[in-house]
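This follows on from our talk about sequence and fold. Go ahead and set the record down below:
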Amino acid sequence: MKVLFVLAHPEPQSLSASLCRVAVDALRAEGHETMVTDLYADGWKAVVDREDFPALAAETRLRVPAASGEAFASGTLTEDVASEQAKLRAADALILAFPLWWFSMPAILKGWIDRVYSHGFAYGVGEHSDRRWGDRYGEGMLAGKRAMLMVTSGGWETHYGPRGINGPIDDLLFPIQHGMLFYPGYEVLPPFVTYRADRLDAAGFDAAAERLEERMRTLFTTVPLPYRHQNGGDYLIPSMELQPSIEPGQAGFSVHLREPAGSGA
């Protein structure tokens, strides 16, 4: 199997980068092929602008979804974006490795999503009608592949627990896991989270590395998070609300799971 890592940390000796190397070595030991996109080392351009659409006429107003779709369809996306899309097509699994900065991913990784997830590739796919609202949330170009987050956090695990002040880690990661991974079709695995990153000693790193190696050995057998598929009958179309009979009176991120999820921490 082929696994693509997208690493987003400016320090090569960071915990994120070190764990990424552990994961790569573990997968290779199992006979898998790995690819690594190191965003900071590669000097990844993080912002979407007119430079992303060289075929767009100077006098034409930039509407990003339309320009993105036209560039994807005509094969005029920039080389860096096209290269990353080719990696995503080739990979059987995607792992995003990053530190949790201000309750989300670093800006450079969000910029990778913004630019690589072009219209016609990751969104705007499939039939849009009063019967079907596109191929998304469990369907799409990346369906049949797996994805996982590998996150480091400076806070304590209890800070991200069900009653922790930072909010439950599953809720904080929901926009990434459900909105950026499940949306274009990935089967999303429970995240691998390492807490107290700045205070991790050698013994703590060894313990985290051992847990991560086990996760890599089971990357293709772990049961994914049971997100509800958009077109599986659980949602009304086109309002995209859950059927009234499903978890009546309940709301929030958890209702989009068929059963409670663990954080994988």
